[in-house]
Design brief:
Layout: E1 2-7, E2 12-19, E3 27-35, H1 42-60, E4 64-68, H2 76-95, E5 100-103, H3 105-113, H4 120-130, H5 140-181
Parallel strand pairs: 1-4, 4-5
Antiparallel strand pairs: 1-2, 2-3
Helix pairs in contact: 1-2, 3-5, 4-5
């Protein structure tokens, strides 16, 4: 499975692609950061992010896209920009027909380090170890994007299978109810 991980941000948006299957160490395909100038108006910054994400999706053709779920922060400006960048990432992936999964920061940290409260240095260190890299990806947004992709490879498949089973059972239940109503 190839996963594009996106750590959304208006100034720096981390992008990381890994190939892998649950239970085995994934391999690095690509990592980078899309940057937009803070002095540009928000709408144009979002257009630039969209163009960069389009390039990553067209170049790497992932099986799924994992985006960090935006959570409330004290700085409203920061959370707004992050949410807008996440929305652009989800839009581009959906436009291409790719499934999108949202993972919370604590879920990603727990998957990568074993602790949902791990710091950025711990995440970067474990991403380096898991992908057998010589050094942690810089800046931290790049390492976070790879952590999202790894988390999805390791956890997303199970979550998707569980949701598929629930959906199939609901369909069986609806069919059964329809038969009983006759």
């Amino acid at each position: 499975m190839r996963v594009l991980g996106i750590d959304p941000g208006l100034t720096r948006c981390g992008l990381g692609v890994v190939d892998g299957v649950p239970g085995r160490p994934p391999t690095l395909v690509a990592v980078g950061v899309a940057r937009t100038p803070p002095d540009l108006d928000t709408a144009r910054r979002l257009v630039r992010l969209e163009a960069e994400i389009e390039i990553w999706i067209s170049t790497h053709r992932p099986d799924a896209v994992a985006v960090e779920r935006v959570f409330a922060q004290h700085n409203v400006q920061t959370v707004m920009g992050t949410a807008q960048a996440a929305g652009v990432a989800m839009l581009v992936a959906a436009r291409h027909g790719y499934p999108v999964a949202l993972h919370t920061p604590s879920e990603v940290k727990a998957a990568i380090t074993g602790s949902g409260r791990a710091g950025k240095d711990q995440v970067g260190s474990m991403v380096t170890r898991i992908l057998r890299l010589d050094a942690p990806p810089k800046p931290a947004d790049a390492a976070d994007a790879l952590a999202l992709a790894i988390c999805h490879v390791w956890r997303g498949g199970a979550q998707n299978r569980l949701q598929d089973a629930i959906d199939r059972q609901r369909q069986v239940d609806r069919t059964t109810q329809g038969v009983r109503a006759r």
